[in-house]
Amino acid sequence: RTDAPLVLQLAPIGPLADQGLREEFAAVRLWEQADAEAWLAAHGAEVTCVATSVRRGCDAALIAALPALRAISSWGVGFETIATDAAHARGIQVANTPDVLDDCVADLAWALMLAAARRIGAADRYVRDGHWRALGEFPLSTRVSGKRLGVLGLGRIGAAIARRGQGFAMEVRYHGRAPRPDTPYGFEPSLMALAEWSDFLIVACPGGPQTRHLVSASVLEALGPRGILVNIARGSVVDQAALIRMLEEGRLGGAGLDVVEDEPGAPAALRASDDVVLTPHVGSATRETREAMERLVLDNLRAFLRSGRVLTPVR
Ligand code: 8YV
């Protein structure tokens, strides 16, 4: 059918989404075109929907090259790589994949917090390296239950992290752009005050220029030599050079990091530290959640083509 909406897929997303895009939407795969620029020049005006991911993004130049574009369906809850302002200015709907990953990302935040406090990585290496028998008892670690948990960014993921605090009898406070009166947790109007109060500070806010290096040297200083930082959001939110300096000087207790600046890979200073637990950006990376995220990319497109509205718009 010549009047069928033309869906353009910018990059591979995952097996389920890729298959659905191919079979149900007959999506054109931009990265497989011999000359992407030439394809856009010839067919850009026919494209009404884009499927992409937070990894690939969709910038303002590409949006400008697609004059008939009406919806962007992106894989991932983050959308800092998508020019949402440019899209919204033209009435183009942008959809991400929220909600379905909240629990798994919150689970990983807790895994990192527990691992950093109880030194699971170092303890695991201690046993593997034969030190248990040779050197005896492992050094003492830090209690988690009953302590103070600070959450930076009480969105859907932040709230899922905070909820888990109840099972550990933790008092929870948070900082963000605005207080959330619908929650039982205390709001700290400044991040400095939250860091000073917290035993554990978990970063769960969006990335992008607005939150860049929000967790500064002074915030880490306020968290203190017994404090532990956990980041499951974006590496850009933390001043990583300051973090490394603080850890090296013993002015911060430890860190659990699923994300770092300049991914993939992590700097040697972080890899070498026994006070740091690292995971390779796997917050949402369970089979169950990744499948749900891929389904939602397709469901957003289906909903848009059926009703003119995506299910989970970015605002
Ligand atoms: C992705 C994420 O795994 O949803 C997001 O925004 O960060 C994760 O779910 C990540 O973008 C993969 O690079």
Automatic annotation (TrEMBL):
Residues 21-314 form the D-isomer specific 2-hydroxyacid dehydrogenase catalytic domain. Keywords: NAD, Oxidoreductase. It holds the Pfam family 2-Hacid_dh. Residues 111-283 form the D-isomer specific 2-hydroxyacid dehydrogenase NAD-binding domain. InterPro entries: D-isomer_2-hydroxyacid_DH, D-isomer_2_OHA_DH_cat_dom, D-isomer_DH_NAD-bd, NAD(P)-bd_dom_sf. Gene3D superfamilies: NAD(P)-binding Rossmann-like Domain. Belongs to the D-isomer specific 2-hydroxyacid dehydrogenase family. This is 2-hydroxyacid dehydrogenase. It comes from Plastoroseomonas hellenica.
